[in-house]
Design a protein that fits this description.
Nucleoside Triphosphate Pyrophosphohydrolase; alpha+beta; 10 strands; homodimer; 20% helix
Amino acid sequence: MIGPKHDGGWSTLASTYLFESKWYNLRQDQVRLPSGDDITYTLVEHPGFVVVVPLTSDGYVILERIYRYTVQRTVIECPAGALDGESPIDAAKRELLEETGFEAGDLASIAHFFGSTGISDEEFHIVVATDLRDTGRTDREATEQMEIIRMPLDEAAELARSGAIADAPSALAILLAHDRR
Amino acid sequence: MIGPKHDGGWSTLASTYLFESKWYNLRQDQVRLPSGDDITYTLVEHPGFVVVVPLTSDGYVILERIYRYTVQRTVIECPAGALDGESPIDAAKRELLEETGFEAGDLASIAHFFGSTGISDEEFHIVVATDLRDTGRTDREATEQMEIIRMPLDEAAELARSGAIADAPSALAILLAHDRR
């Protein structure tokens, strides 16, 4: 259980947006700390996202080999995407279908985490998807340059533990899904 | 193994900084995709950070209960901090001492991950610290509003698996350290 929201004795004196987009905003706050010191705190406001672990009935996981411009590398990740005003389960269902073409008969949210508490409010939900059916159709965005791969969940967990699955939310999602099998 | 850096066929046509600070920058790029489409991609440039798992000889881990303004909650995290032009091991040694007062006789970097590949280049290194000695002195920043707690590593792994340790890098670090014991 994550504890309740509270202000920790920090007072927000003023807020300005330095950047706004449909993906995230950058907000700059003037803040008075409990010590009485005034500071500037600049943070990312993010709508949150889902990380999907799609498991086949024969013990495989469906993953993506995707090019990430941010880190200038092709990395292995779980299907994932931002919440678009919908529940984590609905977002997981939608993203899985759009990115991989798989429909899931069953989806379960197993845990949620904050991604980068020093600079961002981003939170992600880990959703395990089972009872999969391949529709053979995807609907990707232009930036989603990927191929779909499948591997035994045991092997994916090993790659997550070593850092070879280098995206932290994906690695954590795979390890938690693996622990529950 | 993470693959090598490459451009994926994406061409950066122009770059502008929307925000710069000692913690991170926000960079906005005009990019031509392999499809020929031109897009705007805005990303966080981060210096990287370390997440430290300090383990005592009797099976306990030293953690922090810290207020995070970004998520307006007090959360349990590993000692952590940004790289300040130093190696991950040196940063881990410094952050551990500053935040908790513990000196580590042995530090080992066990894996590294990207934190949020959709919007940021941030990368973190997981460092396990052992042979601990409590100096009784800390040197925290004004925003580091925390208390130090210790709990059995087994219990911390359970809290990480459930999401009760809600910071994803900390949860992943604890699970990997636990798997290695």
